[in-house]
């Protein structure tokens, strides 16, 4: 069953074609001119469009040009009253898939429709292949070396093959959306859409229309029908980020949609079946929100079938060097820049409150600041300032048995030199010493 749009300023032509095509169990919508049709194809995915060439406001050729300009993947068939070679050639030259001539013969119409739908399926397969390649690229961006992340990825790969709802919990910047894309790429739905929606970024009074869409005239400003994220993601994966910020009334409607697998557009009565896989994410404690009656308990159980919790970066420091090198290569001149051992040590010591996202930003900033094609601890000194002065000062505790001061000084000098890339001036500055005093300590070694 396909969805087909018929565009003609003559109602009897639209009616006749709708009857013919409807007999093959296809869904048929109608538009009275190209302008109305353009609004419809912009908001609703159609498998093909059949349009008259001459119409008021926007004619068939203008509609085709707009569809191609907007890169809407929908083949167009022209209706013409002149069965001439010239009109057919002109239609094909502009990008039409085929053409129909008036008066219509039902057999010819149905043959043209089926032939064009085969083209539509080929176009869809090409789009799906591109999505699969994108998903593969996304999976390759899962950079890790730690066992804890290896275990998370293994679980994600296993649950990805099912249709179970997944709740990804973790701090901001831990890569929850990237993990959700990886799960989608491992699923049987990988050839369909991955549709993200940030619940925290939507005005509360627009959540329902974003999720379920709306009909023309449903509210002020609704001058055309619009499909929501559920319909748009049908067959694929709907990723609801920051689900904890969803208003309670929207939570009830979301729960019904998940239970019934049907939705109603705002302002509409028809129940529309949808087939989506739900992956949710949050940085909040949903258990706590449930106890405070700020999140529905029944919805929580519905979305928390399989929980995943990617750890913060400070708990998987083994991943920091690999991630840093990855982000370095992604930077505009990262291929020619290296990280010194001192820089790597500083990256490992920093607590990363912003997690992987902060690390990516830090590397990008360091690439801009670097000199001599090397990022040193001095290049990354802005991290210590961001962490706050004095947070690590005074933490050293003298052990009960004491220490060898000379050995301690030698070790500190060596660490400072390593972190500074063997630059004595920078190393001295790190220890709060003049270069002369620093050189005295070096000579004691």
Automatic annotation (TrEMBL):
Domain Sigma-54 factor interaction, first and last residues per copy: 142-368
SMART domains given in the database record: AAA, REC
UniProt keyword Secreted, yes or no: no
UniProt GO molecular function: ATP binding; kinase activity; sequence-specific DNA binding
4-aspartylphosphate: residues carrying this PTM: 52
InterPro entries in alphabetical order: AAA+_ATPase, AAA_lid_NorR, CheY-like_superfamily, Homeodomain-like_sf, HTH_Fis, P-loop_NTPase, Sig_transdc_resp-reg_receiver, Sigma_54_int
Family matches, as PROSITE patterns: RESPONSE_REGULATORY (PS50110), SIGMA54_INTERACT_1 (PS00675), SIGMA54_INTERACT_2 (PS00676), SIGMA54_INTERACT_3 (PS00688), SIGMA54_INTERACT_4 (PS50045)
Domain Response regulatory positions: 3-117
A biological process from GO: phosphorelay signal transduction system
Keywords linked to the UniProt accession: ATP-binding, DNA-binding, Kinase, Nucleotide-binding, Phosphoprotein, Transcription, Transcription regulation, Transferase, Two-component regulatory system
Record bears the keyword Transcription: yes
Protein name: Two-component sensory box histidine kinase/response regulator protein
Organism expressing this protein natively: Desulforapulum autotrophicum (strain ATCC 43914 / DSM 3382 / VKM B-1955 / HRM2)
């Amino acid at each position: 069953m396909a969805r087909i749009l018929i565009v003609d300023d003559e109602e009897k032509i639209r009616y006749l074609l709708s009857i013919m095509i409807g007999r093959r169990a296809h869904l048929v919508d109608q538009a009275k001119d190209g302008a109305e049709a353009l609004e419809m194809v912009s908001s609703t995915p159609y498998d093909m469009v059949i349009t008259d060439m001459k119409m008021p406001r926007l004619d068939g050729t203008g509609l085709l040009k707009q569809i191609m300009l907007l890169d809407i993947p929908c083949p167009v068939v022209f209706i013409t009253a002149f069965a001439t070679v010239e009109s057919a050639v002109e239609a094909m030259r502009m990008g039409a898939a085929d053409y129909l001539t008036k008066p219509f013969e039902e057999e010819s119409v149905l043959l043209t429709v089926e032939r064009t739908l085969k083209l539509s399926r080929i176009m869809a397969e090409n789009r799906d292949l591109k999505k699969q390649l994108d998903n593969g690229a996304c999976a390759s961006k899962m950079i890790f070396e730690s066992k804890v992340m290896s275990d998370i990825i293994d679980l994600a790969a296993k649950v990805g093959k099912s249709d179970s709802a997944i709740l990804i919990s973790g701090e901001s910047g831990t890569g929850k959306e990237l993990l959700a894309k990886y799960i989608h790429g491992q699923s049987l739905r990988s050839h369909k859409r991955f549709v993200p929606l940030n619940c925290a970024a939507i005005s509360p009074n627009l959540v329902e229309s974003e999720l379920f869409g709306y009909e023309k005239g449903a509210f002020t400003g609704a001058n055309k029908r619009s499909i929501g994220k559920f319909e748009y993601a049908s067959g694929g994966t709907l990723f609801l980020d920051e689900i904890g910020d969803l208003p309670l009334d929207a939570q009830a409607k979301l729960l019904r949609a998940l239970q019934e697998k049907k939705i109603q557009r705002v302002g509409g009565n028809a129940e529309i079946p949808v087939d989506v896989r739900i992956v949710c994410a949050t940085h909040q404690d949903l258990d706590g929100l449930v106890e405070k009656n700020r999140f529905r308990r029944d919805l929580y159980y519905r979305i928390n079938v399989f929980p995943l919790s990617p750890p913060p970066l400070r708990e998987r420091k083994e991943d920091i060097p690999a991630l840093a090198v990855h982000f370095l290569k992604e930077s505009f001149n990262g291929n020619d820049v290296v990280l010194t051992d001192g820089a790597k040590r500083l990256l490992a010591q920093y607590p990363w409150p912003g997690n992987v996202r902060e690390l990516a930003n830090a590397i990008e900033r360091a690439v801009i600041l670097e000199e001599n094609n090397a990022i040193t601890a001095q290049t990354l000194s802005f991290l210590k300032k961001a962490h706050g002065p004095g947070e690590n000062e005074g933490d050293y505790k003298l052990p009960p048995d004491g220490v060898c001061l000379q050995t301690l000084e030698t070790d500190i000098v060596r660490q400072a030199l390593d972190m500074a890339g063997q630059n004595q001036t920078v190393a001295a500055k790190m220890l709060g010493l003049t270069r002369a005093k620093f050189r005295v300590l070096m000579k004691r070694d």
